[in-house]
Design brief:
This protein is an alpha/beta fold. It has two domains: about 170 residues, Peroxisomal Thiolase, Chain A, domain 1 (3-Layer(aba) Sandwich), CATH 3.40.47.10; about 140 residues, Thiolase/Chalcone synthase (Peroxisomal Thiolase, Chain A, domain 1, 3-Layer(aba) Sandwich). It contains ten helices and 13 strands. A five-stranded mixed sheet has the order 1-7-6-4-5, sandwiched between helices. A four-stranded mixed sheet has the order 8-13-12-11, with helices on both faces. Strand 12 and strand 13 form a beta hairpin. The chain binds coenzyme A. Coenzyme A binds next to helix 2, helix 7 and strand 12. The site of coenzyme A has 21 residues, from helix 2, helix 7 and strand 12.
Length: about 325
């Protein structure tokens, strides 16, 4: 049986930046409120001509280049996204065509903000079982297309972007374990309605709705539990983890998970201040940043975790 190893990372952020100050001009909010409650100062927003797949394409090409792998060698593409280009075909399928390849399996995973962690878990199982040799695993989101810019509960929080990894069958240890969970009883706390149905019935576009405070409370409890579960599954101690790469939803949620791990904030990769919450893209965006700036090094142990609408949550422990 093979291991699955991350051999390259890549990411993309749209050029346009929207600062908290902008929201002061359109909503009853303030830079101070947004920063104090979330840790966010700005977020990137895609241009008219861009899409989830166009961002994923750039992130994927960066990851392929870093891994020294040609797109034609990829036999599995999984995109974690909740803001796909189309209802179908999948963004993964559209991306595959943009990368100039065909034939391999390509599909999306819809697990809200846990989309990348779920996609990584699935690709890991494919590779370990011999069903794929070289996979592209991506988190990509055009959140700005599903936000209501008159709703201060949501629009100040989310941003756009894409992150990617190349995952290859390897004899060396790579992904040590992945963990995925869900609990649909919370579906009304964070959701986007079906756009097709909504357009038909009331002519409105479907937008994200969130009961932030309730989401916050469950997220903190659940993420603490998954840290324990992940360490126990690997018989590792908190001190064995070199880096925490969390989903970037709220700096206060991230700090409480770091505290649970006894991890100083210098060992936590943070992008939230400049990127906001990019849903499924946030973990691979943070990973790529920390790999490229030299913080995360080969051989180090990285704990990734995420939580999102469903609720769905998950983690991955990875030897880089
Ligand atoms: N600017 C100013 N005031 C705002 C605001 C904004 N952008 N958004 C909400 N408020 C107001 C609320 O209306 C409320 O006012 P009220 O007391 O008059 O009713 C007040 O601020 C407090 O709201 P609350 O929701 O309790 O704030 P909070 O401290 O929980 O912070 C979040 C809100 C969204 C930042 C926080 O709950 C959070 O991050 N939740 C988790 C989000 C998350 O993880 N989501 C995705 C998972 S992927």
């Amino acid at each position: 049986m093979f291991n699955a190893k991350i051999t390259g990372t890549g990411s993309y952020l749209p050029e346009k930046i929207v600062t908290n100050k902008y929201f002061e001009s359109i909503l009853d909010t303030s830079d101070e409120w947004i920063y104090a409650r979330t840790g966010i100062k700005q977020r990137h927003v895609i241009a008219e001509h861009e899409s989830t797949s166009s961002m994923a394409e750039i992130a994927a090409n960066n990851a392929l280049q870093a891994a020294g792998v040609d797109a034609s060698e990829i036999d599995l593409i999984i995109v974690g996204t909740s803001s796909p280009d189309r209802v179908f075909p999948s963004t993964a399928c559209i991306l595959q065509n943009k990368l100039g390849t065909k034939g391999g399996a390509a599909f999306d995973v819809q697990a809200a903000c846990s989309g990348f962690v779920y996609a990584l878990g699935i690709a890991n199982q494919f590779i370990k079982a011999g069903g794929a040799k070289k996979a592209l695993v991506i988190g990509a989101e055009a959140n700005s297309r599903i936000l209501d810019y008159s709703d201060r509960n949501t629009c100040v929080i989310f941003g756009d972007g894409a992150g990617a990894v190349v995952l290859e069958a390897s004899e060396e240890p790579g992904i040590l374990s992945t963990h995925m969970h869900s609990d649909g009883q919370y579906q009304d706390l964070l959701y986007v309605n079906n756009p097709i149905k909504d357009q038909k019935h009331d002519g409105d576009q479907a937008f994200m709705t969130m009961q932030g405070n309730d989401v916050y409370k469950v997220a903190v409890k659940t993420l603490s539990r998954i840290v324990d579960e992940t360490l126990e599954a690997n018989k590792l101690l908190k001190s064995d983890v070199d880096w925490l790469i969390p989903h970037q939803a709220n700096i206060r949620i991230i700090s409480s998970v770091a505290k649970k791990l006894n991890m100083p904030m210098e060992r936590v990769v943070l992008t939230i201040e400049n990127q906001g919450n990019t849903s499924a893209a946030s973990v691979p965006l943070a990973l790529d940043q920390a790999v490229r700036d030299g913080r995360v090094k080969k051989g180090e142990i990285v704990l990734m975790e995420a939580f999102g609408g469903g609720f769905v949550w998950g983690s991955a422990l990875v030897k880089m």
